[in-house]
């Protein structure tokens, strides 16, 4: 609308900032139980309707973030197909068996398992898939549920900087500030390990009384019960190991990690279809498609605010330049 009406730039800046703030408030409060994607897309649509960002700029912003969109698609596909193979259930049972009958060792193993899954399959896999698996497991073992749920929830974020693929936010960051794998590990790997260790110690202290008990190994399901199809399960493990290695090599070569994730998901899907373990439709149902609307909407909202110059005014531009200088060194 304002593309056809002469409006002071200060007014446009105020309106863009207002829409951005209202969008963030809406995402945090979720009025009328609206999905975050709907709120983000509504904010982006309002900016386009008011002419505070041109359709061409919005389109170029989405095209620029293709790596992020494909990475989310690939990671959700990998997680969904690994879940179809029973991998998460199998890992949870193995973590319990390695703990023998100690609740404390099982608590530690959940932290370690969450770190491993977050590192390779992203923190979303730990938060959204491992958490319910652990909940069912500890319920069967008649252990207090709350400590283990906190372990899954916190380790998902704590371990999200072990590798560039451990958190989709890392992909966004690396898209704007390219960084080789060695630099990423040098800056973030050791701090991540320290934070994980601190996390474990704090939660052990908080729940030391609840974790004094023991459980009966007989309550655990056997490995055969968790594996739905042995051949596809082995195939899934081999592919995920290959994907993990490819992640490291691609990060070192600065090759788009999204292509590795999507490629791995497609290979897993082919195996699942051959062994009739799932269908394309069932796999699609396991993917949260609304996340793409959320990313697209927020990308347009952020771009609109950046175009007003507010970010540079508040010093964010200076921090970006400083970050670029540090990375170059």
What would you note in describing this structure?
- There is one protein chain.
- The longest helix has 26 residues, at 181-206.
- This protein has 17 helices and no strands.
- The chain is globular, with a radius of gyration of 22 Å.
- By secondary structure, the protein is an all-alpha fold.
- The protein folds into 2 domains: 9-52 and 291-328, no CATH class; 66-288, no CATH class.
TL;DR of this structure?
The protein is mostly helical. The chain has two domains: 82 residues, no CATH class; 223 residues, no CATH class.
Overview features:
disordered C terminus; 17 helices; 329 residues; 76% helix; mainly alpha; globular
Q: Which structural class do the helices and strands define?
A: mainly alpha
Tell me the radius of gyration: 22 Å
Mean pLDDT: 88
Instruction: Extract low-pLDDT stretches.
Output: 316-329
Per the principal axes of the C-alpha atoms, what is the gross shape?
globular
The largest sheet, given as strand count, sense and whether it forms a barrel, is: none
Number of helices: 17
Strand content: under 5%
The separation of the N and C termini measures 45 Å
């Amino acid at each position: 609308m304002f593309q056809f009406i002469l409006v002071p730039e200060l007014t446009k800046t105020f309106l863009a900032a207002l829409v951005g703030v209202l969008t963030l408030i809406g995402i945090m409060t979720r009025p009328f139980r609206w999905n975050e994607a709907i709120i983000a897309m509504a904010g982006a649509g309002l900016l386009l309707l008011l002419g505070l960002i041109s359709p061409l700029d919005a389109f170029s912003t989405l095209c620029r973030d293709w790596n992020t969109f494909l990475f989310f698609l690939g990671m959700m596909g990998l997680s969904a197909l690994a879940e179809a193979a029973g991998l998460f259930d199998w890992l949870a049972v193995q973590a319990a068996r390695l703990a023998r009958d100690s609740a404390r060792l099982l608590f530690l193993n959940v932290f370690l398992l969450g770190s491993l899954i977050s590192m390779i399959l992203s923190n979303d896999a730990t938060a959204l898939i491992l958490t319910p698996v652990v909940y069912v497991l500890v319920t069967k073992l008649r252990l207090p549920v709350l400590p283990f749920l906190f372990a899954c929830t916190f380790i998902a974020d704590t371990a999200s900087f072990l590798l560039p693929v451990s958190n989709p936010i890392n992909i966004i960051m690396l898209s704007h500030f390219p960084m080789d794998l060695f630099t990423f590990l040098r800056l973030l790997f050791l701090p991540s390990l320290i934070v994980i260790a601190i996390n474990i110690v704090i939660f052990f202290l908080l729940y030391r009384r609840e974790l004094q008990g023991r459980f009966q190994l007989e309550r655990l399901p056997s490995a055969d019960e968790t594996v739905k199809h042995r051949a596809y399960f082995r195939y899934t493990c081999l592919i995920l190991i290959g994907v993990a290695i490819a992640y490291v090599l691609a990060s070192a070569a600065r090759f788009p990690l999204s292509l590795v994730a999507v490629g791995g998901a497609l290979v897993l899907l082919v195996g699942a279809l051959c062994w009739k373990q799932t269908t394309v439709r069932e796999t699609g149902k396991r993917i949260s498609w609304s996340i793409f609307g959320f990313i697209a909407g927020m990308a347009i909202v952020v771009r609109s605010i950046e175009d007003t110059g507010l970010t540079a005014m508040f010093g964010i531009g200076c921090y970006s330049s400083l970050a670029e200088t540090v990375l170059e060194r």
